[in-house]
TrEMBL record:
Residues 4-141 form the Flavodoxin-like domain. Pfam families: Flavodoxin_1. This is Flavodoxin domain-containing protein. It comes from the Bacteria.
Length: 143
């Protein structure tokens, strides 16, 4: 059983709906977890205090992760990603999920290990996507 923490950003709620589906899987797997909005996060070490850290962001200007909170989070914690097990997911509008490819690259260049195939969906996740995420969370929790 893995302790899985989640750090997320969501402005209009699409990414948060993905987070809720992911949390459902963790609850069903009966593993300890904590979710942190990156906007309210006070202690980065607390978020990193887990076996697997899930990160969730929408695409923001020019195919990046969210700019004002998530990009600074990545930057100030760069050294903490070395050998860290990470799972990535998020939502996008019009870019076809290009932001996710850059994020994967960034995380891998920092030395992290992406534990499962990331998930990105357009707009609000439908029930199929939510179910996939719930199952993914269960898999990650018990891997
Ligand atoms: C300021 C702003 C910038 C955005 N930039 C992009 C972008 O570069 N590529 C893209 O595919 N979607 C972009 N979007 C769309 C959001 O990624 C999409 O609506 C997402 O689902 C919002 O997630 P949230 O509801 O969790 O905030 C942008 C939206 C806003 C408001």
């Amino acid at each position: 059983m893995n302790k899985v923490n989640i750090v997320y950003y969501s402005f209009t709620g699409n990414t948060l709906r993905m987070v809720k589906a992911f949390e459902k899987g963790l609850q069903e797997a009966n593993v300890p977890f904590k979710s942190y909005s990156v906007v309210e996060l006070k202690d980065d070490n607390e978020a990193f205090n887990c076996e697997i850290l899930a990160l969730a962001s929408p695409a923001n200007q020019t195919e990046e992760i969210e700019k004002n909170y998530f990009q600074p989070f990545m930057k100030r914690n760069a050294e903490k990603f070395k050998d860290k097990k990470i799972y990535l997911f998020g939502t996008f509008g019009w870019g076809g999920g290009k932001f996710m490819s850059s994020w994967i690259k960034q995380v891998e260049e920092l030395g992290a290990k992406i534990v499962e195939l990331p998930m990105a969906c357009k707009g609000s996740p439908n029930s199929e996507t939510k179910e996939k995420l719930t199952n993914m969370a269960k898999k990650i929790a018990t891997m």
